[in-house]
Design brief:
alpha/beta; 7 helices; four-stranded mixed sheet; 215 residues; 2 domains; Bit1; single chain; 32% helix
């Protein structure tokens, strides 16, 4: 995924993460990624192995160049993210390979209460993550949540452009989310899923980074 972070007018953190969460799912469920579609071979190879996401940042001409590559762009409140068709690291397009992974930090914002009609992606308040790392994690969350939904609910979500709210949980609420006293992590019947990180970057292996709840 590529985050548009302009130097003079950077986006706010929460809309950028919400755009990333939607873009990661939108590109996966695009008709071109379905069997017989032009993107299907790349997605079939990606989901058949260990799914990984790499987040980079772009601005100006870099962003324009990335926009010409196969993928889907999502915008939320002026924040833009482009999720590209997956590929092997060795096949990374030059336009992407030259982009930086670091430098995606943005200050915390105050997004207010989550809309009642959108799923919520609760971010772990106890584990610091860069915006790039968090963007990948919320992208994992929407993919897992989509897999837990029945067809009719998934279609309804798609009709709403996969809108979702990203919020950092309060520590006490986070404890409930991941304990037996609250929604059980991974319980499909409650439409609650969790992202457990493999630990390649920033966080320890097995860390729950995001809990997604369908409301």
């Amino acid at each position: 995924m590529v985050l548009r972070i302009d130097r003079m007018a950077p986006p706010e953190r929460t809309p950028l993460l919400e755009a990333a969460a939607a873009a990661a799912l939108a590109v996966c469920l695009d008709p071109r990624a379905e069997p017989g579609g032009q993107w299907y071979p790349e997605f079939e190879a990606w989901v058949s192995g260990r799914i990984r996401k790499v987040t980079r940042r772009a601005r100006g001409a870099q962003w324009d160049a990335v926009g010409r590559l196969p993928g889907v762009t999502v915008e939320r409140a002026g924040a833009q993210v482009r999720a590209l068709v997956p590929c092997r690291v060795a096949d990374t397009p030059r336009e992407v390979a030259r982009l930086q992974i670091a430098g995606t930090d943005l200050p915390a914002d105050r997004p207010g209460p989550a809309p009642a009609d959108q799923p919520v992606l609760w971010v772990n308040p106890e584990v610091p993550m860069s915006v790039g790392k968090a963007a990948a994690q919320v992208g994992h969350a929407t993919m897992l949540l989509a897999a837990a939904l029945p067809t009719d609910q998934l279609a309804d979500w798609a009709a709403k452009d996969f809108r979702c709210a990203v919020r950092t949980a309060e520590p006490a609420d986070w404890a409930l989310l991941v304990s037996g006293d609250g929604p059980v992590v991974g319980r499909r019947e409650r439409r609650t899923v969790a992202v457990r990180d493999a630990g390649f970057t920033e966080v320890a292996p097995g860390t729950v980074t995001v809990v997604a709840q369908w409301r």
